[in-house]
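#structure-requests
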Amino acid sequence: MRKNILFYSDCPFFAGCENMLVNFFQDEEFMRRYKVSFFYRYSGQYETGFRQRVTRGFRTVGLRLPDLSAIFDRISGLPPFLRLVVLAFCHVVLKHLFIIWDIVRLFLVFRKESVDILHVNNGGYPGAYSCTAAVIAARLCGIGRIVYVVNNIAHSHRPAWRWPDIPYDMIVTRAVSLFVTGSSYAKGMLVNALKLDPVKTVNIFNGIQPRGVTETREQTLRRLGVSEGRILVGVVAVLERRKGHAVLIEAMRMLKEEMPAGGLPLVLIEGEGVELEALKRLVHDGGLQGNVRFLGSEGNVFNFMNAVDIMVLPSIGQEDFPNVVLEAMSLGKPVIASTIAGIPEQIDHMNDGILVEPGSAVSLAHAIRSVATDGDLRQSLGARAGQKFTHAFSARTSVRNYELLYEKLLAQGERA
């Protein structure tokens, strides 16, 4: 008889931390092997993203649960003091009321289900507080096997805003059967943050299922208005400070002074975000208008990545195991990325990509120049990146590793 696995997730939109869910739900073998249900906090934006990525029909339930982030979005225009008062009220009072509401709501839902394993997918830790509620509700319902996936770096209890979470964390760490992280780095941070027994944590590399390339390189470049003849450097990342676009622009300013006229690569930046205007000013101030372009959001980033020669991820913080690195590797593209979080577990320096010091425009400029001016290096890095992806980071490989984890839990019997 097939075992029942209930997935639960909470994210404002269908972000990168949801990609492993796509791998599960689109995997023929996995969906035959288990009886799968998916519960999630409903929002129109999440629903749209989910339906675009998951085409298989199976049981899904969108739950309307209260959301603190919606309140935070609405108070951005308040005077600073009043905004601080509202934020304090939200964290000290309202958050706990919402968690209690979520526990009751999810308990009423879960108790009607036959669940062998609850798989909680969270963007970080503590991340979405309804994930905490899901664990507590599941245990109250007698669900004994809980897998909790943390898709980013966990926050410790050092900052004062985390202190009220300590009782919840104690309950969650006792109730969860196994925590899963996408990188060994994230695993270590989670163990330290929650004072976990390392045997309760496991690292499973995230995998991706590459989306189809629907345009030729020439078609993509023509659509973007980009001429042939220059080395193209691509960036796919939300325009936030943590992604390090400003470091890349500074690196390009340095290269403009060092490289011969006409030899400078063209940087194409895909994505949208709050830093757009500030980044445009940096491009203008550096005289880089002809060397750095902002493209906005591409409907199919695989078409974009397929058209460029080099992919760069110059992040300076808040990363774990970025999907964009794996996506570029799946297309056989050389990747230059920062040595933060789990990225060094994705890239073997100078073998299948290049690692640079985070925040160092000098290091980044040197790496870009090396790869842009050496066709043999670009070809060898890209070829080995493609080979590594197939061996270590495919969707089937990752899903299979989760299947082995599930079977181990099921064989052990329910927790006492």
